[in-house]
Amino acid sequence: MNYHQYYPVDVVNGPGTRCTLFVAGCEHKCRGCYNATTWRVDSGKPFDQQMENRIIQDLNDSRIVRQGLSLTGGDPLHPHNLPAILHLVQRVKQETTNKDIWLWTGYTLGELSSAQLEIVDEINTLIDGKFIQELKDPALVWRGSSNQIIHFLR
């Protein structure tokens, strides 16, 4: 898996102060996407053990109270990203205390494969659906277009 950006302190992509990872790879290629540079799976930088360890360390750093991890992109549920994302979310659940995980995907909940659902079973909140330019609404919180649904899973 590759990633484009990592923010150890983010207050935009989900509630509270969070760590946010923007991964590479998206099959949806939505018209009007604000992050089209992340579409290619081979773009960005390799997501390696050092970056994974940094995310866990940042989530556990008590100098800044972080509510959790946000995974966006690109699309964390792109087939190419599934093994790395599953490993990361499992580590977050095992190695941090009271940190929630939010994930944005262009797939809808009903379209997800069993491998994608394995990841969804590990997260707290899923924001699903493609960005649709005609349904864009800047007043929406944590979504770009009104078709996207926030699923509070646990």
Query: How large a portion of the residues is in β-strands, by DSSP E?
Result: 15-25%
Structural class: alpha/beta
Rg (C-alpha, Å): 14 Å
Main beta-sheet annotation = 7 strands, mixed
CATH topology: TIM Barrel
Query: For this structure, what is the CATH homologous superfamily?
Result: Aldolase class I
Q: Give the beta-strand count.
A: 7
CATH architecture: Alpha-Beta Barrel
Mean pLDDT: 96
CATH class: Alpha Beta
How would you characterize this protein structure?
This protein has a single domain (2-152), classed as Alpha-Beta Barrel (TIM Barrel). By secondary structure, it is of the alpha/beta class. A 7-stranded mixed sheet has the order 3-1-2-4-5-6-7, covered by helices on one side. The chain is globular and about 40 Å long. Helices cover 21% and strands 23% of the residues. The model has no long low-confidence stretch (mean pLDDT 96). The protein has helices at 49-60, 82-95, 114-120, and strands at 2-10, 18-23, 45-46, 68-73, 100-104, 125-128, 149-152. It has 3 helices and 7 strands. Strand 5 (100-104), helix 3 and strand 6 (125-128) form a beta-alpha-beta unit. It starts with a strand and ends with a strand.
Provide key terms for this protein.
154 residues; alpha/beta; TIM Barrel; seven-stranded mixed β-sheet; 3 helices; 7 strands; 21% helix; globular
